[in-house]
């Protein structure tokens, strides 16, 4: 009880003024939760505001073109979230008359909604007594109670959820969930938390045992794959270029890019030029080829590091299906390509 009382008192004094906290409407709550997975609030806020302006209701989102959804999502990363968001909006709008399920179990059945998001919507919208367990909650509880369970283990979520449920007041689960997540986001941060000014500094076991920087325990290391992308920015006699849609499963599915040559390592001019001649622009002779960037741009994803080079290929004649760069800019691109276009073209 002391933990709850102290936590709520802190929350009421320190909570951020966030738009999705001013409603129990599941639509904006769902939007915010999907957007804030793997994304900080400061980064996600402009996207939330853009989405709720463009798509004020779940029906508006459901009826939007996927490319418009992806374009507005551009820069948030993890684009499968946006595609699942769009598909789920269509299910809720067209099969459920725009009404979200009102309980945790049924929310879990929707595409792209996992245990954490279902718990958040169920508690914030419907006040269901179900705890949210995200990275913030793992961190706060593991430190306060000195729990050394490896949070990378599948069983860890059940253990922490059971503890959170025990601590949660059954008459106001929404406020408890908001408070513990906020405490982890603002006070009990991953690195160098200010424990001297923490409201729990007399009762936190990790602080007493000088283990704050050791918790939570996460032992499984993600294996990172290196990939080498060479993007060919073609320019014909009309100053038109060409882009293509990534239709294969994997990163950036359904986003657009320039013609791509993927190699096993960073390759030199001759190798790239040879592969361009073999794979692209058979109808157009290449007058010149140059690097936009001598050093690869390293774009880090959760399981992959992409080493990216952009090559300018000046072509004779006109490209089939070519478009000017202003038209190309209206398509959804991965942020690393979007940034390149804005800076170089």
Automatic annotation (TrEMBL):
Top-level enzyme category: hydrolase
Keywords: 4Fe-4S, DNA damage, DNA repair, Glycosidase, Hydrolase, Iron, Iron-sulfur, Metal-binding
Catalysed conversion reaction: Hydrolyzes free adenine bases from 7,8-dihydro-8-oxoguanine:adenine mismatched double-stranded DNA, leaving an apurinic site
GO MF terms, alphabetically ordered: 4 iron, 4 sulfur cluster binding; 8-oxo-7,8-dihydroguanine DNA N-glycosylase activity; adenine/guanine mispair binding; metal ion binding; oxidized purine DNA binding; purine-specific mismatch base pair DNA N-glycosylase activity
Cofactor: [4Fe-4S] cluster
GO terms classed as biological process: base-excision repair; mismatch repair
This enzyme's EC code(s): 3.2.2.31
Iron is among the record's keywords: yes
Superkingdom of the organism of origin: Bacteria
HhH-GPD domain segment(s): 35-186
Note on cofactor: Binds 1 [4Fe-4S] cluster.
CDD domains cross-referenced by the UniProt entry: ENDO3c (cd00056), NUDIX_DNA_Glycosylase_C-MutY (cd03431)
NCBIfam families: mutY
Function: Adenine glycosylase active on G-A mispairs. MutY also corrects error-prone DNA synthesis past GO lesions which are due to the oxidatively damaged form of guanine: 7,8-dihydro-8-oxoguanine (8-oxo-dGTP).
Family: Belongs to the Nth/MutY family.
Name of protein: Adenine DNA glycosylase
Organism: Flavobacterium aquicola
């Amino acid at each position: 009880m002391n933990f709850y009382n102290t936590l709520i008192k802190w929350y009421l004094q320190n909570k951020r003024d966030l738009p999705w906290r001013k409603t129990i409407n599941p639509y904006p709550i769902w939007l915010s939760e999907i957007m804030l997975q793997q994304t900080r609030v400061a980064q996600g806020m402009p996207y939330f505001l853009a989405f709720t302006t463009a798509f004020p209701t779940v029906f508006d989102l459901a009826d939007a073109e996927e490319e418009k959804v992806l374009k507005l999502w551009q820069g948030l990363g993890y684009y499968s979230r946006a595609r699942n968001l769009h598909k789920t909006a269509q299910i809720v709008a067209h099969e459920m008359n725009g009404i979200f399920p009102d309980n945790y179990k049924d929310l879990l059945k929707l595409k792209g909604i996992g245990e954490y998001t279902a718990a958040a919507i169920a508690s914030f919208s419907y006040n269901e007594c179900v705890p949210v367990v995200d990275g913030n909650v793992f961190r706060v509880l593991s430190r306060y109670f000195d729990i050394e369970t490896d949070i990378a283990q599948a069983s860890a979520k059940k253990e922490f959820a059971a503890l959170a449920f025990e601590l949660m007041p059954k008459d106001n689960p929404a406020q408890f969930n908001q408070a513990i997540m906020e405490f982890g986001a603002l006070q009990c941060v991953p690195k160098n938390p200010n424990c001297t000014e923490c409201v729990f500094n007399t009762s936190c076991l990790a602080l007493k045992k000088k283990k704050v920087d050791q918790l939570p325990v996460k032992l499984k290391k993600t294996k990172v794959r290196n990939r080498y992308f060479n993007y060919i920015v073609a320019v014909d006699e009309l100053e038109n270029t060409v882009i293509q849609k990534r239709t294969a499963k994997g990163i950036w599915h359904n986003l657009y890019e320039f013609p791509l040559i993927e190699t096993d390592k960073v390759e030199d001019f001759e190798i790239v030029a040879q592969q361009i001649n073999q794979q692209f622009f058979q109808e157009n002779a290449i007058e010149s080829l140059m690097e936009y960037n001598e050093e690869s741009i390293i774009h880090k994803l959760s399981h992959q590091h992409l080493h990216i080079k952009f090559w300018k290929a000046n072509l004779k004649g006109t490209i089939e299906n070519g478009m000017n760069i202003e038209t190309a800019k209206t398509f959804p691109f991965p942020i690393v390509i979007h940034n390149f276009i804005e800076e170089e073209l």
